[in-house]
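Input/output pair, single chain:
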Amino acid sequence: MLGIEVAEDGLVELVVDGAISREDFDKVVSTLEGAFAKHGKVNVVEVVRKFGAIAPQLWWRDLTWSFSHLGRFGRCAMVTDSGWIGPVARVMAAMLPIELKTFGADQRDAARAWARGGG
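Output:
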């Protein structure tokens, strides 16, 4: 299950809680493209409660779509207590031209503030 919302200031908040379907993926892409059109660059808070199954072809679509749009993302905050996601995100951050920072599940407000350009 995947949820996505765009705030008035363009902050995109994405919540992952289980498996991700093709419909979920398409909804995220459509929402992000709308946010890009309206706000230019967007900042993202991605909350990962539980990471479930995702079809291999969606992984590929996600990678190709994401890398082709990297310049449209500002700050990305990853909120999770999942053991492996935080460390992987920190390694990826070193290789990406975006600001990415990880936060614990109890730090969602801090993640939003940081993603919006705060401390």
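The beta strands are 2-6, 12-20, 42-54, 73-80, 99-103. The first strand starts at residue 2 and ends at 6.
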